[in-house]
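Whether sequence alone determines local backbone shape is best considered at the level of individual chains. The sequence in question and its structure tokens are set out directly beneath this paragraph.

***
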Amino acid sequence: MGVLKKRWPGLASLPQLELCAGPTRVERLDTVSFDTGAELWAKRDDESATLYGGNKVRKLEWILAQAKARGCRTLVTAGALGSHHVLATATWGREHGMQTRAILVPQPWTPHVEQNLRALLATGAIVTPIKNLGFLPAAMAREVVLRRLKGDRPQRIELGGSCPTGALGYVEAGLEIAEQVDHGECPEPEFIYVALGTGGTAAGLAIGLAAAGFTTRVVGVRVTESKVINTLTLRMLVRGTARRLRALDPSFPAVAKAAFELIQIDNRYFGDGYGTPHAGAAAAMEAAARDGIRLDQTYTGRAFAAMLADGHEGGGRRLFIVTLSGADLGPRIENAPEVPAWARAMGEL
């Protein structure tokens, strides 16, 4: 049982699967700390699970448990061609007897995207491509209706698993960090850095930290367009998650306002758009590798670049959440289907 349910027993009724090997460890990043003159640390959520880890598995602990409690056999979700969320959903869904049907939107084609897509196809997921993000809500609604007409009971999972249920995973992580500080495993950070894709990670972290009495700022480094996540949608996600926690256990503190005020959106590294090459992200990937951390261009490289820049400029104690799964996908794609022609064409749009 995680710290969230231990501290607030009224939340024990919330269904949860034990997918994470938590709490994930924290470690000082000696090389980049020396280079920047700041005190830089990492929380190794890349090690959250051997099957498939990263930040998505924390959200799926709660989302898939809810789906199982409802008797769902199908998961309907969406993401870009190389979506980590879609891959994590299909991987863990199959482990628990549920098939994933995914709506995929274009993303610049890279070897990383190809690897993720092949690993997704290897899970047996059924994929439907669409050419424009604006068509996504209608495409997901159509898929849910079709599943119901066929007598199925589908579970719709929002982009990135970012909903009040999924955000609980990072409320847990925020409380974990507070406990690790209390136990002397790391200093209390002034800032925590995460990639801001759909907002669930940042929202949950801020709620967990605020509930623990911390004033650490959560820096969400933008990697998606403002129509995917913005101040209004982020505020609604924080409010919805905090409201759900208090509805189940009124002793959970009323921290929605304080939590939202902890979050700051950093737009400096969005560059030319989602999934596009970014020189700062590439340099950050090389820097992180010297401390034994693997990052990607789309999400974590950009967030790490922001932490490095701020560390150079302002010093201080800063913590980076390694949200990219560290699981080795190589063996899974050895006999995986080749990517269909439409996928490579979408990656070149």
